[in-house]
Structures are given as C-alpha cells and as structure tokens.
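Reviewer 2 asked us to include a model.

Predict the structure of this chain.
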Amino acid sequence: MSRGIRHGLFHDLRHTRPENDHRLDRKHQRGDDQTHLRAKRAADRSSCSRPERPRAIGGNVDRGHSTQQRGRRQGLAQRRRADNPQDRTRAEEEERNAGQRDCSRLCLGGSTLAVPAAGFMTCLETMRARLLRLPDACLRIESSRTARRNEYSRLRCGRRLRSSRSTSDRKPANEPRINGEMSTTMMSVPVAATLVLIAVIGHVMAFFWCLAGRHEWKLSRRTIYALPFRRDQISRELRNSLHLPMHAAILLVFLSLGFFADRSPLSFVCSLLLTATWAEIWHYASHRAFHLRALHWIHVEHHKSQVNSPFTAISFSLTEKLVFDLGLLGLLAAIDCFISLNFFGVAAWYVGYLVINSFAHANFELKSKHYLRFLGRVLTSTTYHSLHHARYTSNYGLGTRVLDRICGTEWEDYERVYERLFSEQGPLTRLRQKIDAPSVNPRVAPSLDTARLGKPFDVSREGSTP
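Predicted model (structure tokens):
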C-alpha cells in the first residue's frame, strides 16, 4: 500500500494512539487558564455552527476537516494543561474511552477500507430518508397525471355536447362513455331483462286471456261475437307466434349499433312520447297499405282469424313484423342522430303495445259502460278492433280513433255496437251485422200524389242489413 493511501486512510487512527499524545502537548504548551477558556468556547462555537458532514471513503477520509475530530483534539489539549493532576488523569481516561472510534471495515476488491462509523451511518440515514420519501413522490406524480387526464376528459365531453352528434363519431354502445354518459355496458342487467320481457310478454298475455275466457272470469263475461272459432285457428296462430321475439331481436340490433344510448329521465319521457306518436302514424299508414290488393299477401295471415281469439294478437307473418319494426325503429334511429333518445323509453312503448294489443284481440269488452263519454272519444277499445276483423275494412287505428276520423275510415255504427253489448240484446251473432240508428217516421204533407199512391213510402227499414 502506498504512502499516500496509508496517510489518507489511517490518518484518523494515528491521532487515537497513546504514543502520539506528546505531539499535542508540544503544540499547546503555551497556554494558561484564560487560553483554556477561550479555546473551549471556540470549540463549542465551531461545533454548533458547523454540523457534522458524512465522511468520504478514500483519500478524503479526515484531513483535519472534521469538526468533531478537531473539537476533540482541542478539548483534550486543554484538559492536559489543567493544573490539577487528578483532573488531568480523569480527563485522559475519559478521552481514551470516548475517543476510541468505532471503524467499519468494507471489503472492496479484496482490500479492506476503514470508514468512520459516524459518517457511514449518516450516509445510511440520508439514503433511508430519501427512499421513504420516494413513494410519496410517486403518488404526487400519479395524482398530477390523473388530474390532467380528468381535465382532458371534461373538456372533451363539453366539446362533444356543444357540437351536434353524428353517426361517424358515435361510440359503440358496449364502450363506456366519458363523464358518466354511459357507465354500463350495452348488455347490462336492466337492458337484458327488458329485452327478455319484450320477447315473452305477448305469449304471457295471450295465455292470461285464454284462462280468463275458459274459467269465465268477471272481466270476460261481456262477449262481442257469440261465434265459435275455426278448427285450425288456435294451432295456426300458435305457429305464427313462434317468431314473436323478433321485436326484441331487432331492437337489440339497433342498440348494438349505438342508438338509444341516453339514460336521463327527461330523455325517457321524450322517447316514450315520440315513439307512441310515430307508432300510431306508422301503424295506420302501413295497416291501410296492407289492405291494398298489391300488398294484401303481407297481411292476409293475420286476417284469417275473423273472430278474434287470445292468440290472434301474436299471429302475424314474418314480413309484416319486419316492415312494422324496421319502419318504426328506422325513423327513431334517424332522429337519435340529432336528439339522443332513451332505450328504456322505446322499450316501454313496446311493452305497452304488446299488452294493449293482446286485449284488443280478446273478443270480450273490458271497458265500462261510460267509457265512450270521456276516454273513448279518443282511444280505441276491443270492440273497435273486433269490427275490423269481422268486416275486414275500416277501423285501422292502433290505439286512437284520431286518424280514422280524419281519413273517414271509422265504422259509423261503432258506438251503437258498443252500447249494445251493455244492453239486453247482448253480443253480435253475425260477422257483418250492423246496427242502424233508430229512425223516426217522417211526416208527409198531404198532396194529390197521396190520394193517387195511397200510403206514403216509408223510408225507414227496421232490422239489420246482412
């Protein structure tokens, strides 16, 4: 080992050996008590003003720059100059006991390096403090990143709401929207339950009315047509009802394409009203078109049932279901590109439509006797649609009488037939039976033609026309 390295590494050890104490005695022989006090005060001031620094490993181990070592040497020298020999002996013993420095030895590359314990422990404490602060720093960085990401999302959502939405930048329904626009996926539990309800509610209501008629419940006692069903009518209607879940399947296709994604209460109400209005218009237009000779083949399967049964409401051809659903949902999807609609609003109309359509084909009147005074002036009834099946024309409306009155396609004796069901006359006994208005014999003024013709011609004819 070279002389410079030995001097740098073991400089501290030289001053701790007893045989080197005479060097300090020769250096501080000129002093008295006042000098002792001044040196002690200077040592105290230097130790308080200059904190201890960790010592380096290598050539700068000590070199006289350590405040602790310099203060210890000065204090030892002053105590040795004390006049009392006993104090000097006690001070020397304390200095030897406290001055023995505990050195830590590091084995680096096969060579042993003596490192002062105080400096090494300070380095370890500094590194430990920095490592403890590292998780907090990482959390602060991650928090700042999250804040910037949320701010970007908020600005992006605001920009999207201010601009008109188009189909090109529409997100899929199964992708979560920003800022809670659609937090759930497309096939969430409420959506799946609603689709299942639409798929089965038609059959459930049909079997309900079938049980009501078989057990003669109170709500099924007022029959409209006292005529039997055809032999194969029930089995044919059940076969045609196998594809009734197509309503739910087509609605699911539109939902998977990203339509009807809004979930706010206001959009639910608006979607329900808009769907009901457009469904009434589209049903009347398509229903009347199906009665034309060119399109009669689409609707003929439904009209094979002249007397309605509980299963007539779910007996439609596949083509008729496709035309009705695509025409209804197609316009709603086009409106959804500009005004966001709610899936549950559209689905609520489907559920109501299937329930109302089931008792509209039940062949017994459910409404009260005074129904035509208030709601019956606008809304339809079971009798209203039964006349359409029995007479094959007119009364095309779905749930209201408005369009039939505007277009002049309502049977004029509808209200008289309705009132007949609550009278002693009871139900109708023929398919095309009509109820004429009660007539009063007109008064004929006497003239020359009366004497020649005898009795005047009675224009009123009682009875019903076949």
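The longest helix spans residues 117-162. The first strand starts at residue 103 and ends at 108. We have added this to the supplementary material.
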